[in-house]
Amino acid sequence: MTHLDDLESQSIYLMREAFYGFEKPAMLWSMGKDSNVLLWLAKKAFCGHMPFPVVHIDTTYEFPEMIEFRTWAKEHYGLDLAIWTNLEARARGIGYETTDPVTVTHELKTVALQQCLAAYKFDALITGIRRDEDSTRAKERYFSPRNAEFEWDYKDQPPEFWNHFTTESGPGEHVRVQPLLDWTEIDIWRYLEREKVPLPGMYFSRNGQRYRSLGCMPITKPVRSNAMTIADIVEELKVTKVSERSGRAQDHHERNAMQKLRAKGFM
Amino acid sequence: MRPLSETALSPQSPDAPRPAPDAPAAQPRGADHLYLVVVGHVDHGKSTLIGRLLFDTHSVPDGKAERIEAACKAEGMEFEYAFLLDALLEEQAQNITMDTTRVPFRTARRSFTIIDAPGHKEFLKNMITGAASADAAILIVDAEAGLREQTRRHCFLLSLLGLRQIVVAVNKMDLVDYGPDVFDRIRSELGEFLGRLGVEPAHFVPISARHGEGLIRHSDRMPWYRGPTLLEALEKFRANPPASGGPLRLSVQDVYRFDARRIIAGFVESGSVSVGDPIEFLPGGKRSRVKSIESWPPQTPAPGGPVGSERAVAVTLEDELFVERGQIGALPGDRPYEARTFTARVFWIHDEPLRSGELLPLKLGTQQAEARVLGIQRTLDAVTLETGAGTTGEVKCHEVAEIRMRVRKPIAFDVGGKVPSLGRFVLMRGRRIGGGGVIDSVVEEPSDGAGISIVSRSAILGHRGCIVWMTGLSGSGKTTLAHALEQRLLNAGILASVLDGDILRAGLSRNLGFTAEDRGENIRRAAELAIHLAQAGVVVAAAFISPYRADRAMAAERAKQRGIPFAEIFVNTPLAECERRDPKQLYKKARAGLIKDFTGIDSPYEAPLSPDLEVRTDREAADDSIERLMQLTLGLARPAEQAGEGADI
What we know:
The complex is a heterodimer of chains A (267) and B (649). By secondary structure, chain A is of the alpha/beta class. Chain A is 39% helix and 10% strand. Chain A has helices at 3-21, 33-45, 64-77, 87-91, 101-120, 185-195, 230-239, 249-252, 257-263; strands at residues 25-28, 54-57, 81-84, 124-126, 143-146, 174-177, 209-210, 223-224. In chain A, strands 3-2-1-4-6-5 form a six-stranded mixed β-sheet, with helices on both faces. A two-stranded antiparallel sheet of chain A has the order 7-8. The mean pLDDT of chain A is 88. In chain B, the strands form five sheets. A six-stranded mixed β-sheet of chain B has the order 2-3-1-4-5-6, with helices on both faces. In chain B, strands 7-8-11-10-9-12 form a six-stranded antiparallel beta barrel. Chain B is elongated. Chains A and B meet through helix 1, helix 2, helix 3, helix 6 and helix 7 of A and strand 2, helix 4, strand 7, strand 8 and strand 19 of B.
């Protein structure tokens, strides 16, 4: 049994716990690599079925190629896909053209998610965040409660051990279920390769550049890379010391930007 | 159109050819991946040690060290390795690690994930959260400060959590001039403490995390130390043995009915499952065979190759069994226990104490059941290892105790480390985990015919039913004593009832006379009624002449069979005194020949050979007799309070 098998089994276990424990769970899907691993694991967990809706928070700043992938994947996997946009904020003129990236991220992702949750009354959100992405995410639990205001009380998190989790939420609250917490970026790529998981092409090198992490178009920058295959990417990651989300501007807009975003409900 | 990369080798469709299994990039990190927890008293240098390990093994992403360097410079501080880890602003302000973090790093020989366990007392729940999932631990001790409260408490919890691979890092050796004396003293003191917990550390390693001495290189400053460096010690540890190898234990998570089939989704806690295997589900014991192991995407597995995920499996059975979440699938020949009552060692991490008698949800594997704390045998001070003197009937936050528990419905579990994950449980306090425990032994326990526990009734009442059987001559004072006892018990909030000859003979035994045979039958009926009342939780004060030893022995034996405590009280009032009292004028009638077969006159009385209590109403004050009787009865009805122990069933 390999490390990837271990991770896969654990993630499937967590996802099944979420499906059993909550009345109305949903899975967040950004079409990114982690999201696609999550989707793949869900299909495995439920023997080819997707027993809950998949939610995409569409900021309206998505790469066209990602939207194309979304359309393809919805069909390919047979997803019950809910797409949500914070139209109110867009109507107010909130956008990268006019506003700072932290505010835009908050409005178009976090607030949008709040609206979506209120509309659909989901009580659990299965997300694809990993501990190694960011130091604040390192402190996450597999089952992480959020209050009605979406706040994450990271100073007083419930204990979680021996495969026992918080699987109840009060009115208006929800629990973030995070089956990929223990995966690293390299694990993700090795798994994508092993399982032949379909992926958007933007992760691979074109003209000496590729995207390592994908977000909104105006604030996501490619990295220099000649990695054309997953094997190339894995080799590249073995030696790189550049952090994964370095191309995501909202994380670095100000000191502790990520922490502030996350305390307010960002993934 | 498939929006995939146009580059040659990247298409990731399920039908694309798989790479050769030995393609280098597909090599997993290996099952040898070690989860490592770092514990120890606050300020003894855990975060600095981790920061240094990451830095020295080149595991820090570019930019992170520079960012912290800039931040330190801005504050006019020396570079702080701990800040590599303590990324949150509040932590930097308070200098304590607030929560469990996980950081991967690797050496040429193996890969690790460090679970940083905080040392601040209030964050013990996080330390447990971290340590419970680790394979090995670094216990860090400040050379200058020595063993502190948290050092000892963490040792205790590591042993309770079952962590046996421990390396002790004696840190801050720079503060004691890298001398061997302090190191030797800590080694002997801590070694002795850990020995009492049954833990033997693999190594004691002297280090200075701040200066990088003894971590990945042998230190020139400590030539007297001949053992391995910290990293060498870590590389020797074993990752947890994989699931296969032990007996099959399949925890049922859910049953899916996406189509006509019932698919059992389960987690292989130990062993492995194959098509055709016989399988039995506990509790319950229903049996079938594994018909299929489901997988997605559909594939033709290589012969003998793995199918689907190896531990999170989905199976169908040959028979239509009603299997549900919580059951454990096992091979019929090697099953887990199925029981309701057990003893356990627990640790408590909730502000509201765990109380004797309380009912709370217990989770073990995927099973959940309401569990009653029958008794708290003893609390242990994790710091001194002293047993709590008596018990307060509760386990406070951060305390450890030996308790006895009973679940409302049978659960399946393993004991003695056979399958560790099924020998431990958590107790819920509301939505949160309040504490955890490890099952030590199964307790056999009687139940009444309907399977309802005597103990669960007693838990509701706060005491349990029992029989205090008073025997003696007519007029010896049995009924008077019984009523006095009943009143005392009721005053103390204990449900009690008197049963005597007059009551029986007025109704239940109306058809009986006073022959030896009829007396035997009368006692049999009295005993059955008393047992039934006691099973319902009543303390029965039974007052019967019951002159024959055999009849009384039969009553005691019947009670014992049903799990009812029974005490025999000899109300030893001499015949002359009884005859003098003669409250019902019965002796007079017997002497006159108006009553036949009267005990003491023309029918024998066989005195008890070894009564639990002998009362002499002719010699001692009535209050004294009742007091002795009361104490004995309380010992039966409320054993925990009397003996300072849990209910002894």
